[in-house]
Input
Amino acid sequence: MTDPMTRPATECPRLLRIGLRIVLNAAFLGAGIATIAYFLVDPVRVDRPAPPNPGTNAIWIQHQWFTGEKDEKAAQALGENLQRLGFRYIFAHVGPLNEHGGIPPYDPDQARRFLDGVRRSAPGTRTLAWLGGKNKAWGGKVDLADPQVRLAAQERCRDLLALGFDGIHLNIEPVADGDADFLGFLETIREAVGDRILSVAVMKQREWTFPHAWHQKWFWGGEYHRKVAALADQIVVMAYDTAIPLAKVYSWFVREQTVRMTQLAAESGNPNARVLIGLPTYDYHRLTHDPSAENLQNGLPGVLAALQDRRTRLGFFEGIAIYAHWVTSDEEWQDYRRRWPPP
Output
């Protein structure tokens, strides 16, 4: 009998080759099954009708509306058209916050003409001042921890509300999961907004943990989402820039985001918190965005599937939010009307 310790040297490579073949065959089999499943399985298929379009959707619009580059007649046409399409909330870009908590100069009379034009043609429409800014913690200018910056931003919000805006829409990026400074900033803005609308663009929901900090600025855990929802009236989930390259996977992702975010709003302790699901219509390619997968055509079915999902807390769902008005094509509007007819 051959001593195992003196086994011929050629036998080990042969065993390695056999093992490698088994691994490769398993990998090819798994890939084949996954490919077949991708084409045969519909991840957003449901067996119940979706609720009708509530007419409480939102959309982001360009800075030129606020600055008066569009006249009052154009503002009236904008408001009338968006209301007809089922959009109640307009996020009008006012400007990025600077390092002092201020915003770019503007003409109050031109801003009032815009607001009056929308209000006159579309009663019930709510126009919110969209304030952006890049977080200093990630290389930007806005220091969310600075008390002076917070107070200056608070005063600018008071000015905008006095001008006639129905609320404030904040879009500060990036914000890492658990950022206490952002919560403090929100509390300061909440004081200025009072009983008007405070809308906040938030990161996507995750159910897993990841040790690297870069991941935390793109996805938040449930605890942080609940804390933000407790301070806001609207939670607008930026359900894009996911780097998902497959249409069906993106539809499934949007479905799960809608389900989970309505649950978190319900768990926030704020009965006024409502969820809007942000869907993209921009078509430029980058590492985090493949427009062939991430688009309104694939995202909207995910939302509609969630509205038919028994896990979804429908009472906390407000609608979708389209990013953005200036890049939405006629074909995309037609597809939207076909899939989810406005009221």
